[in-house]
Specification:
The chain folds into 2 domains: 80 residues, no CATH class; 92 residues, Winged helix-like DNA-binding domain superfamily/Winged helix DNA-binding domain (Arc Repressor Mutant, subunit A, Orthogonal Bundle). The protein is mainly α. It is elongated, with a radius of gyration of 27 Å. The protein has 9 helices and no strands.
Length: 198
């Protein structure tokens, strides 16, 4: 038996398309830990878009809705990051304090030098490369999620990440081979042979 579906008006079709698109965009932009927020955020975006359309401020509702969705997601992520950092500060355990106290001065100095070299190497990267590495390795996003946040394709994201890691590797290897920082192995061996005497 066939079910009769009355034809939709063009306005109803556009509204349904807008609703589906906003839901997909919000779901794509949000990390998995915020998936329970997708419906609420989609509803907020649709209401803001509807209000802007009624006020006559918007010529292209779909573009406006995507922009509002990006801003709302960014706001939610900032708020979540602040709450996580406060939680982390509250839960500092005595074990981590003891572990930090047990570091030897030589290890602390080495860690400081490595951090300085890494900071210098990151400073030489392009902003897109830095942002992508931060999303992938600091925020822990997948390639697809990071690409969506930066509005690039996953293939481009993968290529940019590979290039950025190669640049970092080259810079850090050059820094490790610098003669002022570390004498070569050959010089050390020659010194040890001559110091033994006849």
């Amino acid at each position: 038996m066939r079910v009769y579906h009355p034809p939709q008006s063009p306005a109803d079709r556009r509204a349904q398309e807008l609703r589906n698109t906003v839901h997909c965009v919000v779901r794509r932009l949000l990390p998995t830990r915020f998936l329970n927020e997708v419906d609420d955020l989609s509803q907020q975006v649709l209401l803001a878009t509807l209000q802007a359309c009624r006020d006559g401020r918007v010529a292209k509702p779909l573009s406006y809705a995507i922009g509002v969705a990006r801003k709302r997601v960014a706001s939610l992520l900032r708020r979540g990051a602040r709450e996580e950092s406060l939680d982390r500060d509250d839960t500092l355990s005595s074990d981590s304090l003891v572990a930090n106290a047990e570091r030897t001065p030589a290890r602390q100095l080495e860690a400081t030098e490595q951090a300085a070299e890494l900071k210098q190497a990151l400073g030489r990267l392009k902003p897109l490369e830095r942002a992508l590495l931060e999303l992938r390795f600091v925020d822990g996003l997948s390639n697809r999620q990071a690409a969506a946040r930066l509005c690039i394709s996953p293939v481009t994201s993968s290529r940019v990440k590979y290039d950025a890691l190669q640049k970092l590797r080259r810079f850090l290897v050059r820094a490790a081979r610098a003669p002022a920082v570390r004498p070569s192995v050959r010089r050390q061996a020659r010194f040890s042979v001559h110091s033994l005497g006849p």
